[in-house]
Design goal:
The protein is α/β, with parallel strands linked by helices and 533 residues long. Helices cover 23% and strands 15% of the residues. The chain has an eight-stranded parallel β-sheet. β7, α6 and β8 form a beta-alpha-beta unit. The two termini are 43 Å apart. Bound molecules: alpha-D-glucopyranose (GLC) and calcium ion. Alpha-D-glucopyranose (GLC) binds next to loops.
């Protein structure tokens, strides 16, 4: 099944595509336990096909004690019982394939759960067979942790295993021990994991903490950050020794070779949490490492013309022929309708239009298509141990993980009426999926229109991007055969268009489609338009 030929034009199928991040637990609950699951997703594939996405990336599906909601894996070859079975996953791949959609899984190679059999065996004895799968070090002279590396909560990243007298390292929670990538057995184990899922028809992986994996062999202290505004720094340290090690690139070269041995080629999409475009570009290698790496500076930029245009221009030039990835919401950073929209649906619509009209690959987060906003989850209902009660001074991640409101019945079409969903279901300014589907000018209608335009004009390759005009109130650019003009101010503006730009294909307000334009266009407050040329 795996080594079949791919259709022509499918070779770099991710270029110009739209992937949809499905946070399975919050998408659709098929059995009324309050948690979304794989059969629930299968039952809604028609919706995703109607919307026009090319693939679905599933947030972690593997068995896990859920201290970090699946990002603490206890078995890399299974399916979390709460989400379904291996048969359900096979059925999902089959059903998605029939609809020409691909399925990507989340892979967590930086660390395992402390309940993974490797770690259970490794604990307690220096001679354990899997001891070297993890990062161990002796205490300092006074029994203190081996170095200054911190974990995701701001505490020391080292936890003492009293029985063996050594510390193990964790970049995240103490129940997420980091793997030791200096050990060739770890490489072999992950190569098996990759081929196991590739052979099952999985189209690729989103790779968690892709800039992690290797740790400095000498365990040198991380230096303090130079610039306090440096987004890559955490708790005042630049994590150059506990992350971003050069040896990690060799892992991706190896995995890319494996990905290439399949047809269609399997996709490696890294969660590359780096803020320098050149650092990002390094993860693409010479087109021999990751095909895609998330662009966090874009997601964290304010909805301001000059800032966004600079991020896009810098990314495109740093990546060269590499394919950029644009995303504005996810399960960690919350939702763009809150960040960019800030209570004004015109801004949310503008943000969506820009996001979906950039060259390369676009990743939508479930609910982006209806303008879902962050939900203030009260302390008693919070479920994410990593950020509960703003632990580590971080925003509560549950805000962006709440269930999708499908309709306006009790249970919101997400779960059964009498059931409490695992996280509260928020109100969406523009209404539920069903309400918006009945309204062609809705945010959902806009998303569908934009994805159709993208498929028609920007898919199949990385469309050429050209900046035409940037000022504090406007950003005008060409992308493939289209021109995008955006007004970032609360008042109407007139914008000059390049020769040839002739008809409005889509406006973020959905009210001037097919209008003919020549030379100049008037843009309403926070309006964005896509024009054919
Ligand atoms: C990634 C995930 C996040 C998780 C962390 C540790 O950043 O997106 O949700 O907590 O890795 O696995
Ligand atoms: Ca369920």
């Amino acid at each position: 099944m795996s080594h079949s030929a791919s259709a022509p034009g499918e070779r770099r199928w991710w270029e110009g595509s739209v992937l949809y991040q499905c946070y399975v637990r919050s998408f659709a609950d098929s059995n009324g336990d309050g948690y979304g699951d794989l059969p629930g997703l299968v039952a809604h594939l028609d919706y995703l096909e109607w919307l026009g996405v090319d693939g679905v990336w599933l947030s972690p599906t593997m068995p896990s004690p859920d201290h970090d909601w699946g990002y603490d894996v206890s078995d890399y070859l299974g399916v979390h019982p709460e989400l379904g079975t291996l048969d359900d996953l096979d059925a999902l791949i089959k059903s998605a394939t029939e609809r020409k959609m691909r399925v990507l899984l989340d892979l967590v190679p930086n660390h395992t759960s402390s309940e993974h059999a490797w770690f259970v065996e490794a604990l307690g004895s220096r001679d354990a067979k899997t001891r070297d799968y993890y990062v161990w070090a002796d205490p300092g002279p006074d029994g203190e942790p081996p170095n200054n590396w911190l974990d995701a909560t701001g505490e020391s990243g080292w936890t003492l295993d009293e029985a063996s007298g050594q510390y193990y390292f964790h970049n995240f929670l103490e129940s997420q021990p980091d793997l030791n990538w200096w050990n060739p057995q770890v490489h072999a184990a992950f190569e098996q994991v990759l081929s196991y899922w590739f052979d099952r028809g999985v189209a690729g992986f989103r790779i968690d903490v892709a800039h992690g994996l290797y740790k400095d062999a000498q365990l040198r202290d991380n230096p303090p950050v130079q610039d306090p505004g440096d987004l890559e720094g955490r708790f005042g340290f630049d994590r150059i020794y506990s992350m971003n090690r050069p040896e990690t690139h060799e892992v991706y070269r190896q995995w890319r070779e494996m990905a290439r041995s399949y047809a269609p080629e399997r996709l490696l999409l890294g969660e590359t949490w780096v803020f320098e475009p050149d650092r990002l570009a390094r993860y693409y290698g010479e087109d021999d490492e990751l095909q895609l790496g998330f662009n966090f500076p874009f997601a964290f930029a304010p909805l301001e013309a000059e800032v966004l245009a600079k991020v896009v221009g810098d990314t495109v030039s740093a990546l060269g022929t590499g394919c950029p990835v644009w995303m504005a919401s996810n399960h960690d950073i919350g939702r763009f309708a809150s960040r960019w929209g800030a209570g004004d649906e015109r801004r949310t619509r503008l943000g969506l239009l820009l996001l979906t009209m950039l060259p390369g690959t676009v990743v939508l987060y479930y609910g982006d298509e209806i303008g879902m906003t962050d939900v203030a989850v009260p302390p008693a209902l919070q479920r994410d141990p990593m950020t509960m009660g703003n632990r580590g001074n971080r925003p509560v991640r549950d805000r962006g993980r709440t269930p999708l409101p499908w309709d306006d019945t009790a249970g919101r079409g997400f779960t059964r009426a009498a059931v409490d969903p695992w996280l509260p279901i928020g109100e969406v300014p523009g209404g539920s999926v069903a309400a918006q589907r009945a309204e062609p000018g809705s945010m959902l209608g806009l998303t569908r229109e934009l994805l159709a335009l993208r498929r028609e004009h920007l898919s199949g390759s990385v469309a050429p991007y050209g900046e035409l005009e940037v000022a504090s109130d406007r950003w005008i650019f060409s992308v493939g055969p289209l021109v995008v003009a955006a007004n970032f101010s609360g008042v109407a503006i007139r914008a000059a268009l390049p020769p040839g730009a002739d008809a409005v294909r889509c406006s973020s307000n959905m009210e001037r489609e097919r209008a003919v334009v020549q030379g100049l266009i008037e843009l309403g407050p926070y309006e964005g338009v896509v024009i054919s040329s």
